[in-house]
Amino acid sequence: VVNEAGMSVEEPTFEVNTEVPKLTISGPAARSNNTTPSFSGTTTEDGEVVVHIMESGKPVATAATHSSSGSWNVTSSALPGGNRTYSAY
């Protein structure tokens, strides 16, 4: 390619990836007395992973980490005690 000054220049090439990364998540056993549960999983891209812990659709905790080589794991802060049901995403 020749620029406006008549000099030969290399044409830049680049890639744009707009696909949403894929993520898997594994949590603690369905019944547990552990108030600081751990979560782990995989992702198609390295970067920040945030796990949101919900009770009745309301957020009660988040836990953040960075994935490395597609794998990640994180432990939540202490959750309230008692007989409660949580979900995570």
Write up what this structure looks like:
- By secondary structure, the protein is mainly beta.
- The chain is built from no helices and 5 strands.
- A 3-stranded antiparallel β-sheet has the order 3-2-5, with no helix packed on it.
- β2 and β3 form a beta hairpin.
- The model has no long low-confidence stretch (mean pLDDT about 90).
Order of secondary-structure elements: EEEEE
What is the overall number of helices? Answer: 0
Mean pLDDT: 88
Gyration radius, rounded: 22 Å
Work out the oligomeric state of the chains in this entry: single chain
Q: How large a portion of the residues is in β-strands, by DSSP E? A: 25-35%
Tally of DSSP β-strands: 5
Q: Could you give a short account of the major beta sheet?
A: 3 strands, antiparallel
From the spread of the alpha carbons, the general shape counts as rod-shaped
Helix content: under 10%
Low-confidence stretches: none
Structural class: mainly beta
Question: Reading side by side through the largest sheet, how are the strands ordered?
Answer: 3-2-5
Euclidean distance between termini CA atoms: 49 Å
Please name the defining characteristics of this protein.
89 residues, 33% strand, 3-stranded antiparallel beta sheet, rod-shaped, single chain, two-stranded antiparallel sheet, mainly beta
What topology emerges from the helices and strands here?
Elements: E1 38-42, E2 48-55, E3 58-66, E4 71-75, E5 87-88
Antiparallel strand pairs: 1-4, 2-3, 2-5
Briefly, what is this?
The chain is mainly β. It has strands at 38-42, 48-55, 58-66, 71-75, 87-88.
